[in-house]
Amino acid sequence: MVLLLPSTSIVIFTFVTLVSSVCNLVTSDPLCPPEYLEHEIPITKEDIDMMQFAENLEHLECDLFLWSALGFGLDHVAPQLVMGGPPPIGAQKANLDFHTRKLIEEFAYQEVGHLRALKTTVGGFPRPLMDLSAKNFAMIMNEAFGYELVPPFDPYRDSVSYMMGAYVVPYVGLVAYVGTNPNLKGYVTKRLLAGLLGVEAGQDAVIRHYLYDRAGEVVHPYNHTVAEFTNRISGFRNRLAMCGIKDEGIIVPHYLGAEQRTESNVLSADINSLSYSRTPPEILRIVYGGGNESVPGGFFPHGANGRIARNFLLDQPSHN
Ligand SMILES: *[C@@H]1O[C@H](CO)[C@@H](O)[C@H](O)[C@H]1NC(C)=O
Ligand SMILES: *[C@@H]1O[C@H](CO)[C@@H](O)[C@H](O)[C@H]1NC(C)=O
């Protein structure tokens, strides 16, 4: 703290007031006032770590959606956002009908925007190694059902299979962002988070509605309905995260429905129909696929990047 003589303080105060009123004159628009309160903190060091954690999830969605819809990934679309990270394992174009492909293409480009917004606002790290192979999804489904599906589940096989694979991803971002919100301090990071949360929640709702429309259909060649797949995936994520029910399928018993009155469950939410919230260790337990935030695997064979995720990997240096 610098002590100033009263007269100097007044001079500085007057100068600052003058500058800000000049700025207001330049930018003020009575119809569109500034979004932020004056004199608040834009961003803090802790905010940066929390928002960088989100980059892992956005990378996962981005390459999954890009590859599935277009047959190429972030290295082709926006190589500067990759920052030298290794290419994803097993990414491929999915066998999608026209409508589904357009939907996923839009989601894919939205993720590119999210990554650009994140990396320009809080800085970034190289894309972590990600496993987007059909084999990884097949392992998730086997764990979800508790036995080995034959033939192995393949999200790239057709549109409905793909949307069930997609069901696995944006919801994790959604609940992670709800969990991040109360811990952010700066208005720049809060604004960024709310923008990401809105679109992730929208993507999740579109995927869930797509599956809800087909809830009773049997997923060939398996003897399970679409609804059962969602319930199994959600149940598996709850088991991995180890913090109770925060994830629900699209058809549920009444006690999990809205106001405990509906079996339809297009949106997964708590007793007051508020979105569930998860912490970084819960998220890592899910995306690593093994229920332990210190043991990488699943979608991130070498672990997620950034300070928060790396801190759970004792003795392991930052790694692509
Ligand atoms: C498929 O599921 C239905 C209902 O659970 C059951 O009655 C039927 O026997 C199953 N068929 C096979 C081939 O497993
Ligand atoms: C998670 O893995 C670490 C490192 O292998 C181990 O020390 C820890 O006990 C595991 N935690 C649980 C809950 O199994």
UniProtKB/TrEMBL annotation:
Taxonomic lineage of the native organism: Eukaryota, Viridiplantae, Streptophyta, Embryophyta, Tracheophyta
Q: Which Pfam families match?
A: Ferritin_2
Q: Which domain of life is it from?
A: Eukaryota
Q: Is the Signal keyword given for this protein?
A: yes
- Span of the signal peptide: 1-21
The record's keywords, sorted A to Z, are:
Signal
Q: What is this protein called?
A: Desiccation-related protein PCC13-62
